[in-house]
Amino acid sequence: MSLTPTATAPRGPAAAPSATPTAHSRRRKRRSTRAPWFFLAPAMVFFIAFMVIPIVYAIYLSFRGQRVESGGAFGRRVETFIGFENYVAALTDAEFLAGLGRALTYGAIAVPSVLGLALLFSLLLDTPRARFTAFSRTAIFIPYAVPGVIASLLWGFLYLPSTSPISSIARSLGQDSLDFFSYPVLYFSLANIALWSGVGFNMIIIYTSLRAIPTEIYEAARIDGASELQIALRIKVPLVAPALVLTSLFSVIGTLQLYSEPATLRPMTSTISSTWVPLMKIYQDAFMNDNLGAAAAASVVLALGILGFSLAVLTFFNRRTFGGRS
Amino acid sequence: MTTTTLTTAERDTGPLSAPDPRRRRSGAGRRGTPGSRVATIVLLLGAVYCLVPVVWVIIASSKSPRELFSTFSFAPGTAFLENLAALNAYGGGQFWQWCLNSVLYAGVGSVLSTIVSAMAGYALAKFRFRGRDTLFGILLAGVLVPGIVLAVPQYLLLAWAGLAGTYWSVLLPVIINPFGIFLCRVFATAAVPDETIEAARIDGASEARIFVSMVLPMMVQGLVTVFVLQFVGIWNNFLLPFIMLSDQDKYPLTLGLYTFLSKGSGDTDLYALVIIGSAVSVVPLILVFLWLQRYWRTDLLAGGLKG
Lengths: 326, 307
Prior knowledge:
heterodimer; A: mainly alpha; 67% helix
C-alpha cells in the first residue's frame, strides 16, 4: 500500500534493556512502554468516540426500523430489529440509486478534469523558461481558500441567467441566455465548481513532488536528445505517480460525498431535487422523514462503496506505479 | 550587493540571450522556446479562470439589487456602503457573529487537532511497542472513512449526550484527524533524531518535557502544515454544522450564507446581501491564506506520500 510509510529505522540499543539492570534503567524501560500510550491516549479517545462508536452505531441502526403495531386509534410505532430490510429498501430505492448515478456521473467528469488539469498546470509550472509562474501558481491556488458553499454561491450567480456575465454577453450577441442548470449541462456546471476549487491544491501537491526530482535526470535526458514534452511525459509523470495516487484517492472520496454544492445551488434552480445526491437523500431520511434506519443503511452502503472505490483506485495505481519495480 | 550579482549574472548570460529585452532574464539565458511561451499563456489563462469569480463578487458587492440585474456584470456599482450597512444590520449584526463562530470553530478546532495529531504521530514514529503497526493501520483506515457519513450517527450520539446544538458539537468531532496523524508520523520520523531523544532521556528529562521542549520545536514546520490543512477543512465544512446546529447565532459563515440564499429564493433583494456577505468573507480569508502559505511545507506533504 503506497500510503504506508516505510517503518522507522530500528532504534539503537536504547530500545533494548541496557546491559546492567540498574534501578535507573528499569525505571526507564517501564517508562518507555507507558509513554507511547500516554501520547496516543487523546487521539485514541477521540478516534473511538467520534469514529469507531458512530460507525458501530450506524451499523446497529441500519438493522433497525419502525413497525406499526395495530390497535388503538393511532397505530403505535415500535422500533425493532428488522434484519436487512433497510438495505433491501436502499438498494431497490430508485431515487437513492438515481442519486448514486448522478454523483458518479458528476465524478466521472469532475475527477479526471481536476486531476488532468492539475497535472498539466504543474508540468507547465515546471517547464524551463515559463514566465510569471509565481503569479499563476498563487492565483490558481487561491480558490482553495474559498469554502465549497461560497464557491457554489459565486458560480451560482455566474450561472444564474439574471446575473450571469456569460449570459449577458450571449444576449448582447443576440443569443439566448445559457441554461447552466439543465441536463446534461448541470453536471458540467457542478464539475466546474469542483475544478475551480480543487485544481490549485492538487496542482501544488503534484508540483511539489516534481520539484523534488533531481534535475540531473533531465540533463541526462536532454543530452540524449529528449524534448521537453518527452521529458514531461516519460520522466516527470511516472515519478510523480505517488502524488497522483493520493490526489485521485481524495477526489474519489470527495465525489461520493457531494453535498454542499448541489445543496447550495438548489434555491437557484428547480432541476436539483431535495434528494439529488445520496447524501441529500440520507439527510432527508434522517431528519425530515425520521427514518434513521434507512439513513443508516444508506450511509453504510455509501461508506462501503467509497471504501471499495478507494481500494480499487489504490490497487490500480499500485499496479501501474510499482508493478514494474517489485 | 544583490544588484551587482544580478547584473553580473545577466552579463554572463548576455552573449547567449536574445537581443529582445523581454527575454533577457529568462531561464538559464537560453531563448524562450515556443513551448515555454505556450506554458506561460496556458498558466495565465488558468490564473484568469481562477480569479474571475473572485473579481466578479468584489465588483458585484458594490451594486444595488437593481444594478445587479441591469448593469454589465463587470461594471462597478454605486451601493457598496449601502450593502455593507444592510449586511451589518441583518439580524442585529448576525453576520459578524457567524464570522466569529467560524474563527472559533476553525481556530480552536485545528489547534486541538494539531496537538492531538502531533502527540499520536510522535508516539507512532518514535516508540516501539506492541500493537503499534496494527494501531497505525487502524488509524490510517480512518483516512478512508468519509467524515460526512459519520455525521448522522455523530449527531445522534451527541444529542444523546445533550451536546447537539452546542459549540461542542461542531468542535469535538473535528479534533480527530487521521490524515493529520499520518502526516505527523511522517514529520516526526524525518525531523526528530533518535539520538537527541536518547540524550535527553539520559539527562533525566521526562517524556512530557522531551516532547514539549524538544520534539515540538523540531516538528514545527510539519505542524503548521497540518494546522493549515485542518483549519481550511473546518472552515470549509458545511454538513457537520448543518446537521448539528439549529440556533442561527451559533452558525459558522458557510452555513449562515447558505441560509441567506435559501431564504432568499424568489426574493432577489437578498441576492445583494448574499453577494456582499460572500465578498466580505472571502477577501480576508484569501489574504490570511496567502500569508500562511509561506509557512507551508508542501514538500513534506508530498514527500510523505512516497514512503
